[in-house]
Write a structure and sequence with these properties.
Blueprint (H helix, E strand, L loop, with lengths): L1 H5 L5 H16 L5 E10 L9 E5 L4 E14 L4 E8 L3 H5 L1 H7 L10 H12 L7 E4 L1 H4 L2 H9 L4 E5 L4 E4 L19 E2 H6 L7 E8 L2 E15 L5 E13 L5 E8 L7 H25 L12
Parallel strand pairs: 1-5, 5-6
Antiparallel strand pairs: 1-3, 2-3, 3-4, 6-12, 7-8, 7-10, 9-10, 10-11, 11-12
């Protein structure tokens, strides 16, 4: 099996294309969600292609690992992985000796994780019916990635870090002093914005039936302007915040930016948020059913 996977000259891209077609046909819904997720796997040594000391989200720290960007498809019918791109950091991309040893194709150059996601979107977007793009805060923190999705006329709901700066466009600006420019609502971190909300601002939403009864979350949304990567004023977006009570009684908050219409139902934003979490289930399935990460091949093809 390892010899077939890692050495024989078979066309895996044709197989992935067939998989995308089957997922789109069997699970496709017009309001489906495409989910992009960079996922890391801890590895020893330095010979496996792409392995490096880099951010490992599973461990919450920088460690020796391989990173791939995965594309998952989520509908009400089911959810499944569709494609993946192995991430080569700049050091690996420039190392001719290691590239040759591992069989990295000449045409494969350094691409950011966001560029790899856009590559998969271009390849499979047409055969996977969808209304939304979703992803974790590694995907959403990049204002350039959100800009690229807007240019492609794709709607997104992307997680962002708690320190993301936003200006609430629905809040009243400070009182005008009569001199100079009229003041605007100041930028604040999204977590601080949440802390200032009254309890009455939150709406309880029944997501779905869980193993222990209805799964309830609370959510809120508002129109905002976020600071871009270069600290400039970004376009109008919708900030959606979802909070969920944990087993110890505390509330876990997740923050999202979207280019969806402001009048989009809050429950729809929550549906997409929950769809984004499904990719973790896809990865767990791949581990238990197909041995994802339990392999010994070191080359690019493998």
């Amino acid at each position: 099996m390892q010899k077939f996977i890692g050495q024989s000259p078979w066309d895996d891209r044709a197989l992935i294309g067939e998989l995308a077609q089957q997922v789109g046909t069997a699970l496709g819904e017009s309001d489906g969600v495409l989910v992009f997720d960079p996922s890391a796997f801890k590895k020893q040594g330095k010979d496996s292609v792409g392995v490096a000391r880099q951010w490992c989200g599973r461990l919450g720290k920088i460690d020796n690992c391989q990173v791939a960007v995965y594309l998952g498809y989520v509908s009400r019918k089911e959810h499944a992985l569709v494609d993946t791109r192995l991430y080569l950091n700049k050091e690996w991309a420039k190392d001719k000796k290691r590239r040759k040893k591992c069989g990295v194709p000449r045409e494969r150059r350094f691409r950011t994780r966001h560029a790899l996601a856009l590559e998969m979107l271009a390849e499979h977007g047409q055969v996977l019916p969808h209304a939304w793009i979703a992803g974790d805060d590694e995907m959403g923190r990049s204002s350039a990635f959100r800009r690229d999705l807007r240019a492609l006329e794709e709607r997104y709901v992307l997680a962002v870090p708690s320190n993301t700066l936003v200006r609430d466009l629905e809040a009243s600006p400070p009182e005008y002093s009569g001199r100079g420019r009229h003041p605007q609502v100041p930028y604040v971190r999204v977590d601080r914005w949440c802390e200032a909300l009254p309890e009455s601002a939150w709406t309880t939403i029944d997501v779905r039936d869980g193993a222990k009864g209805p799964l309830l979350v609370q959510a809120v949304k508002t129109r905002v302007q976020a600071k871009s990567d270069r600290r400039r004023n970004g376009p109008e977006e919708v900030l959606a915040v979802v909070r969920e009570e944990q087993s110890d009684g505390t509330m876990k908050h997740d923050y999202y930016l979207s280019n969806g219409a402001p009048e989009t139902a809050l429950a729809e934003f929550v549906r997409v948020v929950k769809a984004e979490h499904r990719i973790e289930e896809c990865l767990e399935r791949a581990k238990s059913e197909a041995g994802l990460a339990q392999y010994q091949v070191r080359n690019w093809r493998g």
